[in-house]
Specification:
CATH architecture of the largest domain: 3-Layer(aba) Sandwich
Strand content: 25-35%
CATH topology of the largest domain: Rossmann fold
Radius of gyration: 24 Å
Bound molecules: 5'-O-[(S)-ethoxy(hydroxy)phosphoryl]adenosine
Length: 660
């Protein structure tokens, strides 16, 4: 019998639990799993690794090695991600759709890649890479849109042990250049352009200057939009030319589980983005397990994640997760509001998506402009809804639940990070409970806690992870072990991982574990429209403007995007605030970081709150923007400046900031 339209949850006192249908269907339905997994966490992971993954050699000596704060998993085991996503499915599922690609222009046909087709394309692409001299341990940077060739390129890198380093297309060429330099990559894979809101966004032509400066050896260009970009002889090659006549088969390289699988740059607390390193084996096991348990992913499911490949969610769940299990993943090229605000609902209906995974910011935009549009579509194929990237407020949660899920589907509010590689905290579909605004509980056998400033467990405070850690955790920051220690393993010592987030332990429970509510970042990282950005990187870009003497950037609450970057600047003597100057600042941020980081607000101030040693206290700026209590203003060396700033931002909070 078809699953369409079934009730997957039942309500009790305003919170939701799995229904009988869900309990029959779901992989995990017994809450004892939490206790059981904790009895021997290392064995738990070893069993999952053998059960979910095909290894060339699963005879690793030690499953786990932990030298705080460094760990290894399955070292000596031999494995390949591309093999697990492709080769092992070919015999049974060769003709099944692996990727369904939906181009943005509505007059273009969808493209379906079966497992066999994808397998072929990936092998040829891998041979193309080899012919360009790319091999194991080489970093390959991508500046790629959501097109099938991007999936092929990533899997091709995995196949030969090269590391992809994928940069989101809304980052600027300058940001790509910096990441290429840091990773030491001399190959860029890009496209001529792609479609967004009905227009072609050019990529190749925009990055030509940056490519010259980074002295790239090669650039592979996918022709997506027929823009005929400028190509440099000998360096730039169209993919179609390279693929022409290339050898068709390329075996997957048996990699060590502890080899690096890929780099992904993410924003931290300094201006320089960090190259997060993920291992081949541990990442794969964690991706496989979370995909299966959290989305209750069955073989016939059609998974639709709206996350762009430039972010970790795009890596783990738009690309690898569904393919590891031989499922189907839907890729959409463009914008949710093109040609209308129901494009996503249209896609769900068209392909019969069983899971839908997106970020609250997009939902808030769709609520604002197209509240009732989901009802115009048959969304009865959906079984599970997912949310990621920022806290989902109860109002958005309820709309998502009722309008998109028809009141039938659980929402898995998945809390995780680039650094964790996969989801580590949520409510499992077969267990629940699903509480609006509350993320959930650590997955078995994870051990999250909330600590106060002294490191004591408390109800509201810093979200941390304690032993046992999961195999999918980052293996470090590329070429920067000190940064790794400092950023994650210093606040509470070398055995406790600090997430950077603040959270609350709620009164809700499952299997003897509390559910966590995540409040947001405590450090200088922002979540803008679900995209993680560092304040320092934007500050550096603002400083590039000649008239700017000093700048501080913090997140300002925004009803759709969650947060937008708010810039506070002090101008040099003689410079006057003006709209032109604001324009210069915006342009500089777009050039240095990218459109994704465009300031939402620019304030000209005469002073910024500082510590005695001259460090800007951004905490005060954040509180002023949020209309919150500032606390003891005397921690600033110059508390009197807060009155001026309060005035400029229109502070309406409870504290009297005058009188200094
Ligand atoms: C935030 C994205 C609340 C959090 C997978 C985290 C969330 C940062 C949630 C990581 C959630 C992610 N509820 N906050 N369900 N999921 N976050 O590295 O602040 O792009 O630290 O990884 O996003 O962002 P990143």
């Amino acid at each position: 019998m078809s699953d369409k339209g079934k009730m997957w949850v039942t309500e009790k006192d305003g919170i939701y639990w799995p229904s009988e249908n869900m309990k029959k269907k779901a992989f995990i339905t017994n809450p004892d799993i939490f206790e059981e997994a904790k009895e021997n966490p290392v064995e738990f992971w070893a069993e999952r690794a053998r059960e979910l993954i095909d290894w060339f050699d699963s005879d690793w000596e030690r499953t786990n090695e932990w030298n705080p704060p460094f760990f290894k998993w399955f070292e000596g085991g031999k494995v390949n991600l591309s093999y697990n996503c492709l080769d092992r499915h070919i015999e049974d599922k060769g003709d099944k759709p692996a990727i369904i690609w939906e181009p943005e222009p509505t007059d273009e046909e969808k493209e379906v890649l079966t497992y066999t087709e994808l397998h072929k394309g990936v092998q040829k692409f891998a041979n193309v890479l080899k012919e360009l001299g790319v091999g194991k341990g080489d970093a390959v940077t991508f500046w790629m849109p959501m097109i099938p060739e991007t999936a092929m390129a990533a899997l091709a890198c995995q196949r030969i042990g090269a590391w992809h380093s994928i940069v989101y297309t809304a980052f600027s060429p300058e940001a790509v250049r910096k990441r290429m330099e840091d990773a030491g990559s001399d190959l860029l894979i890009t496209a001529d352009g792609f479609y967004r809101r009905g227009k072609v966004m050019e990529l190749k032509n925009n990055i030509n200057d940056a490519l010259d400066r980074v002295e790239a050896e090669n650039c592979i260009v996918v022709n997506r939009a027929d823009t005929e970009p400028t190509m440099v002889e000998g360096r730039d090659h169209f993919l179609s030319d390279l693929m022409d006549g290339v050898e068709e088969s390329c075996d997957a390289e048996p990699l060590d589980a502890e080899d690096i699988g890929f780099l992904l740059y993410t924003s931290g607390t300094t201006g320089k983005p960090k190259g997060i390193k993920h291992s081949v084996g541990g990442y794969l096991v964690q991706a496989a397990l979370s995909m299966k348990w959290v989305f209750d992913f069955h073989e016939d499911d059609v998974f639709y994640s709206t996350a762009d490949i430039g972010w970790i969610t795009g890596h783990t769940y738009t690309l690898y997760g569904p393919l590891i299990h031989g499922g189907t993943t839907v890729w959409y090229e463009g914008s949710p509001d093109y040609p209308d605000l129901d494009r996503w609902w249209n896609i769900i209906e068209k392909y019969g998506a069983t899971q839908f995974y997106t970020a609250p910011t997009a939902l808030r935009m769709l609520i604002k402009h197209g509240r009732d549009l989901p009802e115009k579509h048959d969304l009865s194929s959906l079984r599970i809804l997912g949310s990621v990237g920022e806290p989902i407020d109860p109002e958005t949660w309820n709309w998502y639940f009722k309008k998109v899920g028809g009141g039938r589907c659980p929402i898995v509010d998945t809390y995780w990070q680039t650094e964790t590689g996969g989801i580590l905290l949520t409510s499992l579909p077969g267990l629940g409970p699903f509480v609006p605004g509350v993320a959930g509980t650590p997955l078995p056998p994870m051990n999250y806690d909330i600590l106060d400033i002294d490191g004591n467990p408390t109800e509201k405070g810093a979200v941390v992870i304690k032993e046992p850690f999961s195999p999918g955790m980052l293996r470090g920051v590329y070429k920067n072990p000190d940064k790794y220690k400092e950023e994650y393993w210093s606040r509470y010592g070398e055995e406790i991982y600090f997430t950077g987030d603040e959270g609350i332990k709620t009164e809700h429970e499952i299997g003897g574990q509390k559910l966590f509510k995540i409040l947001g970042r405590m450090d200088d990282v922002m979540e803008v429209a679900g995209h993680r950005l560092g304040t320092a990187e934007i500050e550096d870009a603002v400083q590039e403007v000649e008239e700017v003497a000093e700048a501080a950037v913090v997140g300002k609450p925004h009803d759709v995007k969650g947060q937008v970057p708010a810039v506070f600047t002090i101008l040099i003597d003689g410079a006057e605030p003006s709209e032109d100057l604001k324009g210069d600042i915006v342009r500089s941020v777009r050039r240095e970081v990218g459109p994704v980081a465009s300031p939402g607000e620019i304030y000209f101030v005469s002073r910024l709150p500082e510590t005695e040693s001259g460090k800007v206290i951004r905490r005060f700026l954040r509180a002023l923007l949020k209309d919150e209590e500032l606390g003891d203003m005397r921690t600033a060396n110059n508390p009197e400046c807060l009155e001026e700033i309060a005035d400029i931002v229109g502070y309406n909070g409870p504290q009297d900031v005058s009188g200094y």
